[in-house]
Hints:
Blueprint: E1 3-5, E2 10-12, E3 17-35, E4 47-48, E5 54-55, E6 58-59, E7 65-73, E8 83-89, E9 107-111, E10 117-122, E11 131-140, E12 143-153, H1 156-163, H2 169-181, H3 315-355, H4 365-403, E13 431-439, E14 442-452, E15 458-462, H5 476-497, E16 503-508, H6 519-524, H7 534-558, E17 572-580, H8 586-598, E18 604-610, H9 623-628, E19 629-632, E20 637-641, E21 648-652, H10 662-678
Parallel strand pairs: 1-10, 15-18, 15-19, 16-17, 17-18
Antiparallel strand pairs: 2-12, 3-4, 3-7, 3-8, 3-9, 5-6, 6-7, 8-11, 9-10, 11-12, 13-14, 13-21, 20-21
Amino acid sequence: MTAELVRGQNHPLSETRLEIRVSAGTPVVALVTAADENGTVRGGAGVAHPGAPVLPGLEVSRQAAADHRLAVDLDAVPEAVHRVNVLLTLPGGGQGPARFGAVAAPFAAVTGLDGAELVSFTLTGLDAETAVIALELYRRQDAWKVRAVGQGYSGGLAELLADQGVGQARQLAATVEKAVAGGLARSVAAPPPRTADGSRSRQTTAPAADAGQGAPAASPAATDPAPAPSCGGHTSGAPLQSPSPDGAPPPRTGGGSTHEPPADPRPTAPTGGPIDYSHPRRQATAPPPPAPTAPPAAPGRPAQPVAGDATGWSMEERLYNQVWGMFEDLARTAAAYRSAVDFADARRDKELDQALSDPRSRIGGQGDAARETARVRHAELVDQARAALDRDLAQLTVESEVVEPALPTAYAGWDNPVWHGYRVPMEIPMAVRLGDLRLPEAPSLRIPMLVRLPLERGLWIDSGRSRGPGGALTDEGEARRLAMEAAVAHAARLLAVYPAGEFGVHVIDPAGTAAGTLAPLVGAGVLATPPATGAAGVTDVLGELTQRVDLVQMAVRAGAPDSLPPGLDTAEQLLIVNDFPHGFDDRAVTQLRYLADEGPAVGVHLMVVADREDAAAYGPLLDPLWRSLMRLTPVPDDHLADPWVGHAWTYEPPLVPPGSQVLQRVLTRVATARRDWNR
Length: 679
């Protein structure tokens, strides 16, 4: 199954002879650069372009075209090359549109020699850019991974090449344009049509509407959502999608290539390509500084991990990538262990069936000997698998012990000492921690669940009855209290990680049952308005936020953001709805669904505290609402699934330690900063 990547996400490559297919709604020029471990391209000789289309192991098209096939043979790439970047640029000279924002979002796919897609990436969010880094292929511990980059450059190909360290970038860009204009090349055949079950349809005649950020995104992904490094050995966990409540099926996982490298270093058949990655908000003029390097390991001992040992333009981004790399490592080492145990079980059963198929062998010592032999072989296989798992878990545990104390406040747990020195930030962070994830094979190893900001999906805090840590079933009142406490903790964290005045929180509590739980927010004075109660309160708040969504949407679509009313609060807004659907009539339910669907794209986010069974009277009417929200629980629960191997991950909410005053201190500082900002 194809792994559909979002910007920044990476994925292991199971093959080394690949084809990269590019499809756009207009002719584009495709290039490939070969860079060292620091991402620097050593001169024009490290660039494959229409005028010089071949590098060792790499070949590009000789002309501008709406569809490209680029050949990649990673076994033939020189050892000094650690990164292979796939670049797209619009041809100059009035031959096409002036910017990527005026055409359909380009689509890139990495396929094997059999044509099966391994990963795909749609380059959304481009506007004035005329050149873009689409994908990056990079080495990681003798294996190759691909990363979705999607970083655009409004200064064109010359600016992009200069950013990669290419000398005389402007002259090289002019050479490329001359080669394209001169028609140095052959036609490039369009890729074969996609099968109905293996791909999605794509719009190629008009720009794709970008409704907002790509979420995880929200499926551990999500979203970052990704490669399959050996445990403890990754250098770049990409932004993954957050865990999917619906348990999305896993894409193909990585593995060793089964193809022998060709004798000729030039690929003889089209093959797949790399993905590049850079911070979506970054306007770069220089390559990123190298990540911290771990000290060499003693012979026979694992390498000592280093916090921030991942790619990125800042320590925050490196830690983000490293955390999701740890998540990927744990997912795949557990998958390998489970697969090995399943194989051992199947082999034992097969051996027993073969040995005992003859009725005569069931009598006497022959049958006992066969059973004992099968048992011993089974135990050996399981022990080997467990030893490999334990080795990987030990390395990941050491890495977790190094990374956790180094996390910034947005990524840190409430028990992290970093909160004691909390200051209201000046910028919005890349992501926020919404809890922890773990697997039954390693109950003590917890991976932070990081979700990109701004949120692309609303949150559903499930207040249904569930089993607590001791296995006891919570009663209805206790479940609702725990759910609302979790909602308050999530809201406090979101308030804490946004700059002053850039995030507001509204609360709807129709029956007023959450007054005690809301006390930290109300007492600190951080709510935009007092909690709304009763039917009138529900109507007022939903009407206000619905109107805000309508106004911002109209302004954005008209390209006139300055036309918004002067008194409109343009800060991000979070609406907490307690005890849904009690107190909601049909009109209010419709407004809530509208906010869930349309709100995130214009800065209005939803957090619903509800028991789905309570809404059963609405029938399937609310099913789209539940599906649009990311389900979180107030107690540990194994309801999240990753998109690679489909593990059921146990989610643990980010609860404040008992007796701690950290929440009150943080909210007090948020309130103080807000008052200072309003003066």
